[in-house]
Specification:
Low-confidence stretches: none
Strand order of the largest sheet: 1-2-3-4
Strand content: 25-35%
Structural class: alpha/beta
Helix content: 25-40%
Shape: globular
Number of helices: 2
């Protein structure tokens, strides 16, 4: 898995790395499954997320999957920022 915890200004941030996956839906789904497992193991409203989607395309097949994943993890996420 490419995603990992980082620290910035004393804050713990979960860096979700979906960058450079281009049109590889399978790779995005695999990374997303790992990300969900980590986020759901954290306390509610505690996770700061930085998602990097640089050079990754959102297709009509991928959008509903990403939206559903966001709904599932929403209660555990405190703040989110997106790149790409």
């Amino acid at each position: 898995m490419r995603s990992r915890w980082i620290e910035y200004n004393g804050k713990r941030i979960f860096y979700q790395d979906f960058s450079n996956l281009f049109y590889n839906i399978k790779a995005v789904k695999e990374e997303l499954a790992g990300v969900q497992g980590i986020v759901l193991n954290e306390p509610e409203s505690s996770v700061r997320v930085l998602s990097n989607f640089t050079n990754t395309e959102f297709t009509s097949e991928l959008m509903p999957i990403m939206n559903e994943a966001s709904k599932i993890t929403k209660s555990h996420v405190r703040k989110t920022a997106v790149l790409g």
